[in-house]
Specification:
Blueprint: E1 4-9, H1 14-24, E2 29-35, H2 44-47, E3 59-60, H3 62-68, E4 71-74, H4 82-90, E5 94-97, H5 107-114, H6 122-126, E6 128-129, H7 132-140, E7 144-146, H8 150-164, E8 168-179, H9 194-197, E9 202-203, H10 212-223, E10 230-235, E11 242-250, H11 256-267, E12 273-275, E13 293-300, E14 305-312, H12 316-330
Parallel strand pairs: 1-2, 1-4, 2-3, 4-5, 5-7, 6-7, 8-10, 12-13
Antiparallel strand pairs: 8-11, 9-10, 11-14, 13-14
């Protein structure tokens, strides 16, 4: 296959920089343009010195990046992608939106939770939710893919086999997730200030985090039931990683063997999801800087509860890596192309 012309809009943020780093080594990508709101005319190596000596492309405006590329990645805050995606779609471009604008089919929920208005509601009908392990075939045929949120990726991969196989009751889910500070983006704030976050660990946005409706919408599609879950996110004093601990009541007559078999069967052919052996639990350091998801299972027979621990790198499988996985599927490549990273050993 010839090289695919690719542009990245919003390349000066954490996700944009991570995505650029991956695309630079992708064998089928020609990186034709990067855009930034605040750094037009500057090189990416000026903003991120890690690129010095390797890549010095200058940030352009959005219109130029769209014009030069056949496939666009959008790494923008919620509410900022919609008009640009419309422009891309009208020009026949393929789009992977890493922001939140197209993740929810329920427009009322999106507008309520994100406090934005929707200008092109018809685009939501075209968008495919970009979790490859669930929607691989639809992604292959799509022009617009909505990259999932980082928390939902870890949570949904952890829960899917249990809910899809009716092994647990989805009406009483408790979701406890911890994220590194890069999940908050590059914009400075007291919440992620080193002096305040180092040596600290806190919960935040309890019962009000914007990923809640995304999690619930997909679980409802999987289960066929209207559900609500308790979702509590936390902020870890680390750069990268998400660890989600998921609690679900086991349905009657379901055995531990049924649960392990369901997970091992569903994920045995998945290149980026590993179900750990019985008795082993995952660690965020084991997936750092990789597109991997590790899942550990514990059946608490005393409480008849399944406890799932799911870990990902929020910058990779939670954002840029998964976006490249979707890109590969959209253009007919092996979905592992450019994503053969292994976590550092120490």
């Amino acid at each position: 296959m010839s090289l695919v012309k690719v542009g990245v809009i919003g390349a000066s943020g954490f996700v944009g920089a991570e995505l650029t780093r991956i695309l630079l080594t992708h064998p089928n990508v020609q990186l034709t343009g990067l855009s930034s709101l605040h750094h037009i005319g500057q090189s990416i190596s000026t903003v991120f010195p890690a690129f010095v000596g390797s890549f010095d492309q200058v940030f352009l405006n959005n219109e130029t990046v769209i014009e030069k590329a056949d496939v666009l990645f959008l790494c923008l805050p919620h509410g900022k992608s919609e008009a640009l995606v419309k422009q891309c779609i009208d020009q026949g471009k393929k789009v992977i939106d890493i922001g939140a604008d197209f993740r929810l089919k329920n427009l009322d929920a999106y507008q309520e939770w994100y406090d934005v208005s929707v200008e092109y509601p018809e685009l939501r009908n075209e968008a495919v939710y970009g979790l490859p392990e669930l929607n691989r075939e639809q992604i292959k045929e799509s022009q617009l893919v909505a990259n999932p949120g980082c928390y939902p990726t870890s949570i949904l991969l952890g829960l899917y086999p249990a809910i899809a196989n009716q092994l647990v009751d989805p009406s009483n889910l408790i979701i406890d997730s911890k994220s590194g500070v890069t999940g908050a983006g590059k914009t400075l704030s007291e919440v992620t200030h080193f002096a305040l976050k180092n040596e600290g660990f806190n919960a935040y946005k309890i019962a009000s985090h914007r990923h809640t409706p995304e999690i619930e919408e997909i679980i409802q599609l999987i289960s066929g039931e209207q559900i609500q879950c308790s979702f509590v996110p936390h902020l870890l004093p680390v750069n990268r990683g998400i660890l989600s601990t998921l609690y679900a009541d086991i349905n009657p007559d379901v055995t531990p063997e049924d649960i392990y078999t369901a997970y091992e069967t569903f994920y045995e052919q998945e290149p980026f999801v590993t179900v750990l052996e019985k008795g082993k639990l995952p660690d965020i350091s084991h997936v750092s800087h990789s597109n991997q998801c590790h899942i550990g299972l514990t059946v608490d027979t005393r409480t008849n509860r399944l406890i799932i621990v799911s870990v990902i790198d929020n910058m990779q499988k939670g954002a840029a890596g998964q976006a490249v996985q979707n890109f590969n599927l959209m253009i007919g490549l092996d979905e592992t192309k450019g994503l053969a990273m292994v976590a550092p050993s120490f």
